[in-house]
Protein: Shikimate kinase
Organism: Oryzisolibacter propanilivorax
Amino acid sequence: MQTRCALVGMPGSGKTTVGRQLARRLQLPFVDMDQRLEEVLGTSIRQYFEECGEAAFRDHEQALLAELAAQDGPVVLSTGGGVVLREVNRAALRTGFDTVLYLRATPEDLMRRLRHDQNRPLLQVEDPLGRLRELYRVRDPLYREVAQHCVESPRPTVHGLVSMAAMQLEMTAAARRRR
Ligand SMILES: Nc1ncnc2c1ncn2[C@@H]1O[C@H](COP(=O)(O)OP(=O)(O)OP(=O)(O)O)[C@@H](O)[C@H]1O
Ligand SMILES: O=C(O)C1=C[C@@H](O)[C@@H](O)[C@H](O)C1
Ligand SMILES: [Mg+2]
């Protein structure tokens, strides 16, 4: 299938894990924005946040998304969790990709997954669940704004989410062919 798909969602929603497997299943190139940014920045995202601050990180993120959105050719793109915060990024997602999928998960589910994870700079606080709830409150409407489809399930496994995402892309591609 020839498609340009982007995955959006909260930190820990599975964009990287699901995106990599989805790309393998559909035999499409895979790009993870956070991984690319770490290559560009020459350090971990957590370290970069600590040394240069969030705004500087967001500028790099915006520049990379603009570059990726301007490219042609099939891709599965896993974005960073905060990419939807800037309107210019939401516009790039709308214009640069055929299909945007929102991997939705509740703050409580995300907390269970990320409990032992030290790599998410925004969650290195005393009350990470409170922070996740606040991020979710602000971002859930933004993810919904850019995405054509919401991929969710009450008990999501990675395999189940990959299958649901693949099905959505097949259906979207078939609808495009009929038009
Ligand atoms: N559906 C799922 N069920 C159980 N565990 C999951 C699921 N999706 C992801 N995970 C696990 O949760 C952790 C975070 O997943 P992942 O890194 O793919 O999230 P992400 O959306 O890319 O986060 P970020 O925005 O921070 O990059 C990983 O350890 C992954 O294996
Ligand atoms: O949710 C966020 O704002 C972030 C999520 C990660 O993907 C990284 O892009 C970074 O840690 C910021
Ligand atoms: Mg990721």
